[in-house]
Amino acid sequence: MKTWQVVLPLLIVCLVVVFYHGLYGNPSYIPPVIINTPAPDFAAPELYEGKEMRLSDHKGKVVVLNFWASWCRECALEHSSLLEVNRRYENDPQFVMIGVNYQDKENLAKEYLEKHGNNFKHVRDYAGKVSIDYGIYGVPETFVIDKEGMIRHKSIGPIIGESYTHLIDKVIEPLLRGETLKG
Amino acid sequence: MRQRYVLITLILLSLSSMAFSAPLTEDEIQVKVREISKTLRCAVCQSESVWESNAELALQMRAIVRERVIAGESGDEIRAYFISRYGDFIVLKPQVKGINQVIWFGPFILLAVSAFLIYRKIRVWVKQATKVTPSELAPIDDAGRQRIAEALKTYHTGEK
Known about the structure:
The complex is a heterodimer of chains A (183) and B (160).
Chain A: H1 3-24, E1 43-45, E2 52-54, E3 62-68, H2 73-89, E4 95-102, H3 106-116, E5 121-125, H4 129-133, E6 141-145, E7 151-156, H5 162-176
Parallel strand pairs in A: 3-4, 4-5
Antiparallel strand pairs in A: 1-2, 3-6, 6-7
Chain B: H1 2-21, H2 26-37, H3 56-70, H4 75-86, H5 100-130, H6 142-157
Helix pairs in contact in B: 2-3
């Protein structure tokens, strides 16, 4: 058998595999590069008190960072789950949850929280610097940062159903116990 | 005399360093911002560059590019910052690294392999075509010889 008679079918098979993979993969999924990298520190004004909050103020804690906006429907969908997460861990000194208000107006953000309820602190990202530092595409996006200040989890879309239980059981709980995440 | 040369060199060096550290003019900043923004993809619109897009995120990205240009960062440094946040996806021109190398070099490799295969095939054809020796050809009969002689004569004399 000649070389080209082996190489050519092999190339065709490779191409078919690549196209097959492309067809069945999610074309809009872009693997996050920020996982397992140090969480960028930020200084942003708190939504209510106006004083500056830094991420580094919470060093040594497991931080849940949720990016949201009042105009975002999916954010409203996940809001009760976020309140539940914070209710569950708010007495744990090793845990903190911070909301980052994204591309929004202050009064609309406050109205939204009054309507949907609130039990954690929020900062405003005026110029989008925090969002871009975290590689945000849209909202809602949620990050979990471990006690060493490393980003260990990123979730795109609302934290509801399976993603809620995954966040609790597979991310927050192990990180609070000081374990490393699997997968 | 030598001291004078040293002094002149030092003055020239300090002048050139002053020229390099001089702040950019607004026009220079604009040109750089445009140049860099055109190479970055708007993260939410995807098919447009940060320069072309009017999406809020693109405007914010442009503002960050501007800030970093003013701070004296190069285009590569600014692109590296965005890549560290969004991945290679954020640059419109794929980077020549990892699996991306297939995109850059694949067509050329394919072209070279195809050219090689065609060359080999042509060589085989040529070899097969020249395999016939004169003795293997059909013998020329007398009528043929006469026709050749006439043709040669016409060729040399120009007569028809």
